[in-house]
Amino acid sequence: MRRPAPPRHPSLWAGTLILALVLVPAALSAVWTPFPPGAIDIAHRLLSPSLRHVLGTDPFGRDVASRLMVATLNSGLVCAAAIALGGLVGIPLGLLGAAPGWGGALVMRIADLGLAFPPLLTAAMLVAAEGTGIAAEIVAIGAFNVPAFMRIARGGALSVLHRDFIAAARVAGRGRVAILLEHVLPNIGAILLVQATLALAIAALSEAGLSYLGLGMPPPLPSLGRILADDQARIFDAPLLVIAPGAVVALLVLGCNLLGDGLRDRLDPTLAPVR
Q: Which string of DSSP letters, residue by residue, matches 170-232?
């Protein structure tokens, strides 16, 4: 009997499965949660997991599973918005950096300066300067993703601009902007997608770190880092209160990294198996 062939891109499927496990309940929280996430019930505080409360309750009697669902959605939306902001700013600057001359060199030196600072430190400084809030958090996380998108876009553009079809487009009278939009950008879309997926992993860690430090989204909005900070004192008598949000953050990071690796293997023709 012939054995089924193993999946060609196991990282892609594993990352998709892990993210679905975390994000599907989070998306469901937009319309339904087992209990109101902010409902306080002191009479039922610190309950152990049961059929009624799958992950138990916290020191205020709030359902842990409901709060985790909403916190994951909030953190995920912040990360997605931040990566979108980083891409919208970084990709055009990266394409500009591919231009010959001092202008392109200046743009890339700015990108090098941005990459010299640790991501979480950069985000913390920006949030501290602008004040806490969702908008400030999105801008802070998006800002340190701009240099990475700039370098990826510039490297991809330089590899495409030397190809024959670009020369043919120039001969046909197409301008530089039209060539970048119609020929370069579609050909580097795959590597930009991979970069966005991998950047989501760093953004998830940064968002959790900022919220843990009290620099993220303000209460009463639940976030993964804030739940960790609020319940860390209960790590010995109610360890699930800390393990659960920590596990969600770990799964988000792992899923994004596996998905990014899988997309790279799937979309990069140089990594295709030779037949």
A: HHTT--HHHHIIIIIHHHTHHHHHHHHHHHHHHHHHHHHHHHHTT-SSPTTS--HHHHHHHHG
